[in-house]
Amino acid sequence: DAMVIQNPRYQVTQFGKPVTLSCSQTLNHNVMYWYQQKSSQAPKLLFHYYDKDFNNEADTPDNFQSRRPNTSFCFLDIRSPGLGDAAMYLCATSREGGVSTDTQYFGPGTRLTVL
Amino acid sequence: GDSVTQMEGPVTLSEEAFLTINCTYTATGYPSLFWYVQYPGEGLQLLLKATKADDKGSNKGFEATYRKETTSFHLEKGSVQVSDSAVYFCALNRDDKIIFGKGTRLHILP
Description:
Strand content of chain A: over 45%
Structural class of chain B: mainly beta
Number of strands of chain A: 11
Largest sheet of chain B: 6 strands, mixed
Oligomer: heterodimer
Helix content of chain A: under 10%
Order of helices and strands of chain A: EEEEEEEEEEE
Shape of chain B: globular
Distance between the termini of chain A: 36 Å
Number of helices of chain B: 0
């Protein structure tokens, strides 16, 4: 089945130690998104890629970076994780982007713990 | 700006009860409307969607109708099961930005 895959499902890192989360998709979708979801809250968009064009949300901290080396893969890098960055990180894809009828498909998420 | 308001939870029902989770939205133009479901420890799954006024989305016994006159997209199910226990998010998509409601946690008791 075509899908959005996130690895690892659970990640533990230490305060200040860089960490990378990965997302891959077999849907061949043009757009990939990263969301942060804290406990009992709605997902918050961090940034997204239209193909190779990177779009950062205005309130995303500089500590968060992303890379998309090809259509299938997208990475979230947290350069110096703080305790407040502990959350579920969700990757999503959509086919076209810029179209309100487009559906976003989510991966299972990576739960990040910062010690 | 665009926004989505959904009923506060948690909502607790007995198995086979009728479910309604209210959702209203504020948006300019013509957004698409969605319900996503999140089971414990999992990502979001699309439950149903509607892309224009009077459309009805349906899936797994859940239904919601896009009501432009009342700017609503209420989620309903005639007979809930224990396996429906999850968090439900109402959302709108305008120009590919999803605006989520805060989520409603649903508990179904056997």
